[in-house]
Amino acid sequence: MSGLIMTGSEQPVQVASIDLDGTLLDRRKRISAENAAAVELLRAAGFEIVLTSGRILQHTLAYYRQLALTGPSDSADGALVRVPGRKPIHDVTLAPDVVFAILDTARRLKVTAMVFRHDGIRTTSRFAWNDEIDRHRRELPRHYRESKVERVWRTPTHKVLLYATSDELAQLEAALPDFVSQQTHRIRNTATLEFTSPGISKVAGLASMYKPEQVTFFGDGNNDVAVLRWAGLGVAMHHGTEAALAAADLIAPCTDPASNFAAAVELILSI
Prior knowledge:
Elements: E1 14-18, H1 33-44, E2 47-51, H2 57-66, E3 73-75, E4 80-82, E5 90-91, H3 96-108, E6 112-117, E7 120-125, H4 131-139, E8 144-146, H5 149-152, E9 157-163, H6 166-175, H7 178-182, E10 185-188, E11 192-196, H8 202-207, E12 215-219, H9 225-230, E13 233-236, H10 242-247, E14 250-251, H11 260-269
Parallel strand pairs: 1-2, 1-12, 7-8, 12-13, 13-14
Antiparallel strand pairs: 3-4, 4-5, 6-7, 6-9, 9-11, 10-11
Helix pairs in contact: 1-11
């Protein structure tokens, strides 16, 4: 790999930033043996491993520990960067009045809303509940609660995540006060709408620690598009969204999606 900056000790810093869902994890939210081995190959090649996810930090810890990582974790789509157990490196929250406006509108329009905080996830409205939404409760029983909007909105919030149909989300966006658009960054997917503070994305989290030429990023989704473009090398999974594939420098060869990350690693290490 080329174009890396040097640290004070004159050693090159190479960073492998890895998305979780759809990239490192399979459909059962597990790391396949092939993908775990690929992480070890990257480490052996001198890469620092950084998990980069839309999940809250508590949601990434099991994978962090499974891979025996010791460095920072980039969570909540770049709103929080920290080494687990230490003070945050980067910590940006939404304005409380913005949080209230989003949650109150979601409640009125019967859209499921989740709040991502330092201490876990709070669900403030629950409609059209399904297995994909329920995994937050199942996977984080100690850090998940259902709460009223009035009990949540003043607490520092890294991200608000809404679940609904595409039409329902479009209706909600149209109903939000104008100041919400001015004070948020949003990512729209088929059945989700995510709000973070302006300028916050996975790029912001990584840029708080590294220069783009240091970073090789692996991702698959719409929330990975900006960082695929920003990184010195952006690698999209073969099964990624159209936007992710268009933003990437390289696309992994076609394999089983559960081990496509491993194929991507093999590809970049052969360059």
